[in-house]
Amino acid sequence: MLYPLKFKPVFKDKIWGGQKINTKLGLDFSPLPNCGEVWALSGVPDCQTIVSNGFLEGNELNEILEIYMDELVGEKVYSIYENEFPILIKFIDANDYLSIQVHPDDALAARRKIGKGKTEMWYILDAEPGAELISGFNRTMNAATYLEFLNQKRLKEILNVEKVHRGDAFFIPSGRVHALGPGILLAEIQQTSDTTYRIYDWDRVDSQGKSRDLHTELALEAIDFRPVDSFRTKYRSVVNKPATLVDCPFFTTNLLELDRETHKDYSALDSFVLYICVEGKAEIITGEERVSLTIGEVVLLPATIDEVSLFPDPNIKVLEVYIP
After folding, report:
1. What structural domains does the chain harbor?
2. Fewer beta carbons within 10 Å, N or C terminal of the chain?
3. Which helix (H) or strand (E) holds 221?
4. Coil, strand or helix: which one is 47?
């Protein structure tokens, strides 16, 4: 019988990475000097996370999916995604600006035969004073004007900049130009895709004096120039009541802020559920199975699990993620 699954994370060294994966999340990433990303749950080929608990310990995520299929992810989810786990979970430490970038949608990705598109969201775990990020444009925009500013190296003048604080949430649909600034630690929930079109990388070079590749033409077709009213996700967190952060075709994300024993009934949900701990710790009990959950960890509840109890110690903040 399937049970709550935990995984060994995959660590990524990045030119813009820092030390907070260790100091804030308590995850040991040595010997990486600039750990920018932790892939906490991944079915991306050649970068899969491996189960770390129970009788399935040592198996990759996709191996389990191939064996258990809809028992793991739900009938509807499996009928759509088959043997591709649809969600990728990361923790990101931005010690410097990430490149300004954009991701394709499913239709463009299909035309280019590169798998799925990439819609994502961010939940801010920690932000230094004055930290900011880029999301979208700050004015009505079209391709010609965009290229004019890009070619003149004045791109940031037309980009929307948001001040960032702990607990903020941002939805980044495919097609939206975006970038993280320094001083931000966050959890990222996204479609399973590793396709990024880099627009501008701040003219920086690596230790060998080489700059990273840009994808100007590929990005141009991917960018959504339509105006947006607000780039910041508005929500109200109430203790012991779920707060919806994102509800889109690719995933639903709720924030659970708990300070008492809580019971969840998922019998009407035809999907797996992910618990991403962003603060505190708790014990999760399903039947006779018990697993711990602490900041920086992800627990995968297979679709066959209908009832779950969470016991905060003494409180916890969890991102609850599933396929609607």
Report:
1. 5-222 (2.60.120.10), 243-322 (2.60.120.10)
2. N
3. helix 216-222
4. coil
Residue 198 appears among annotated catalytic residues: yes
Specify whether the CB–CB gap between 114 and 104 falls below 8 A.
Answer: yes
pLDDT tens digits, one per residue of 241-265: 999 999 999 999 999 999 999 999 9
> 136-177: per-residue pLDDT in tens?
999 999 999 999 999 999 999 999 999 999 999 999 999 999
Residue 14, token pair as written in the block: 């990045």
- Cα distances (Å, whole numbers) of residue 161 to 49, 125, 145: 34, 19, 18
The H-assigned helical ranges of 46-142 are: 61-68, 70-73, 75-81, 106-111
Cis peptide before 314 (omega within 30 of 0): yes
> Distance between CA 2 and CA 64 in Å, rounded?
10
- What does DSSP say about strands 307-322 and 10-18: parallel, antiparallel, or unpaired? unpaired
Catalytic residue among 154, 198, 226, 290: 198
Report the distance separating Cα 175 and Cα 119, nearest Å.
8
CA dihedral over 155, 159, 163, 168, signed as positive or negative: negative
